[in-house]
Amino acid sequence: MLLQLKTSLIRMIKTPLFEYRLSSSKSATMPLPLRSKKRKSQRGLAKPFVDMKSVRAIGGSGGDGCISLLQAWSNEKAGPDGGDGGSGGHVIFEASYQVNCLNHVHAVIAADNGEKGYNKDCFGKNASHTVVKVPVGTILRNEKLDVVGDLSSEGSMFVAARGGAGGHGNMFFATDTEQTPLIAEYGAKGEDINYTLELRSMAHFGLLGLPNAGKSTLLQAITRAKPKIAPYPFTTLKPHLGVVQYSDYEQITVADLPGLIEDSHKNRGLGIAFLKHIERCTALIVLIDISIPEPWLQVNMLRHELQCFSNNMNTKPQIIVANKIDLPNSEENLKKLRTTYKDDQIVPISAKHGTNLLLLLQTLRQLYDLNLKTVKGYQESTGE
């Protein structure tokens, strides 16, 4: 045990703290990105970000009515006294800034049933409603994929499945001609409805690039997110979300998206499902590997796939980030890349070594302040 603790301490001492490099010529008044002093845990990886989920909502059943005849000491046949059953609970979705994804939403959500009725005219207790918090900007679709709910503001609610009413006890059925009815009602069943939950906006910036371009490495370098990193393609199969916080406490969310390949709009690779993730990002970071021959072809291919999927995709604000600037031939390729695209669109970095990340984060903040800060339907909720 002591040996294991000693080894762990040595590893922590040898691990260098992350440092931003190459300060840029940006204005000194611009808020700087903050780095948490707390080290990242090495135990396990973060859960993937979920921006779409199929949910079955089941309302609670009403309680059964009671059949009972009152027997008082002074009157053995005092009449019916069976109470009604309680109503079942509803399933309700509530929009909240306290959550930012659908990870916590279960596939089947069932509300509680109402309590049965009792004798002596006692009614059963109504079940409490089951309220599930979802991010602001969540859209609900029915089985026909029609939009039936849009939770666009804090506190807005949508009743997904109503609970059944409680059944009447035999006291309800007493009449002048029938003084001792021996009938009661069963409680009504609750609604059982399937929905598809979607987030209108997933993140401020989406990392768009080919497999193995370094998207997960970059996300881990600029945020406290812990996506899986490995030296083979398609390491990222589901989105991961990270948050960058600045010195004025403004937060920017960045999503690590699965790698895009040629003909993805024809459903190759991760295909259409992946392109829908991009559609939910407000702006794009086009990440390319600057060390390979003709890296500008990556930009052309990525933008072509976006254009083929939707005409509006390439209208999103974009910046080009040239990763792996520390490798051979990168500087020469960067010069050729800048002959095609404007200088202010290209940020050369090394996500692995932390080179030029401060410039990148300042560029993201500039783009955020100019284009994204007033975007309706999205507000950052919490840190990580």
Automatic annotation (TrEMBL):
One of its GO terms (cellular component) is mitochondrion. One of its GO terms (biological process) is ribosome biogenesis. GO terms for molecular function: GTP binding; GTPase activity; magnesium ion binding. Gene3D superfamilies: GTP1/OBG domain, P-loop containing nucleotide triphosphate hydrolases. InterPro entries: G_OBG, GTP-bd, GTP-bd_Obg/CgtA, GTP1_OBG_dom, GTP1_OBG_dom_sf, OBG_GTPase, P-loop_NTPase, Small_GTP-bd. Coiled coil: none annotated. Keywords: GTP-binding, Nucleotide-binding, Ribosome biogenesis. SUPFAM superfamilies: Obg GTP-binding protein N-terminal domain, P-loop containing nucleoside triphosphate hydrolases. Residues 47-202 form the Obg domain. It comes from the Eukaryota. Belongs to the TRAFAC class OBG-HflX-like GTPase superfamily. OBG GTPase family. NCBIfam families: Obg_CgtA (TIGR02729), PRK12299.1 (NF008956), small_GTP (TIGR00231). This is OBG-type G domain-containing protein. It comes from Clastoptera arizonana (Arizona spittle bug).
